[in-house]
Amino acid sequence: MQEKKPWTWNGFVGLLALLLIDIAGAWIMVQTESPVIGVILAIISVTLLSGLTIVQPNQAMVVTFFGSYAGTIRQSGIWMTTPFSVRKKVSLRVRNFNSTRLKVNDIDGNPIEIAAVVVFRVVDSAKATFDVDNYEQFVEIQSETALRHVAGKYPYDMFDEQGYSLRGNSDEVAAQLARELQDRLSVAGVEVMEARLTHLAYSTEIASAMLQRQQAAAIIAARSKIVEGAVGMVQLAISQLQAEGVIELDEERKAAMINNLLVAIVSDRSASPVINTGSLY
């Protein structure tokens, strides 16, 4: 069902018309002996008065007439619409939904805790009223369902630094969550403005083991950088010594120098120099 505009009339003009009808009815009843015309005018006044409605800013008024959808009033103010119609308020304001912390499994089967905030608003009041039973509850359930589905498509972390992960690519995951939510909530006339993860952590039963794994990965990555830098420094030192002719190094002396430099650079502790007064051979 698509939203449409109902028949409306300016409410202030309608109130003025009702006032004139009441004055005319009272005058006729006083001036004539027959009150029939006055009663008819009073009935007309009450009938028109039943169509008077007030619409607040950022609010829509869905109008139904004997079970049929008549339209939606979006413009704020006082309006005269179809008499004896039923009118339901629908908020058009931007709202937030904070999901509870959900316990799900990522694509690797690791149990994780995840939560998100969804910013949304109603853009089609007819769909929000008639196509779903309760659009607010529908948003909550579909948001948690989409969050579970998206969390199951990615690993919590990528230790080989290839592909997307929940922790390392939060913007991409949030964009994917927003797209999936929009596909799910379009049937309810709801626009998803933003979706962001607010909580992400390993479950308590594996948090300690995963922390050790992350620490080991960080240590290995740091060691790799240190070794890479040390090799470059050693190559630079030997090249400069040979280029400037400071010392002639055969393969055995070169290997000894490389070993000493690597130990001094890569070691966790400060190197203690040992003075060799003899010959290498």
UniProtKB/TrEMBL annotation:
It comes from the Bacteria. This is SPFH domain-containing protein. The chain crosses the membrane at residues 12-30, 36-55. Residues 50-214 form the Band domain. Gene3D superfamilies: Band 7 domain. InterPro entries: Band_7, Band_7/SPFH_dom_sf, Stomatin_HflK_fam. Keywords: Membrane, Transmembrane, Transmembrane helix. It holds the Pfam family Band_7. SMART domains: PHB (SM00244).
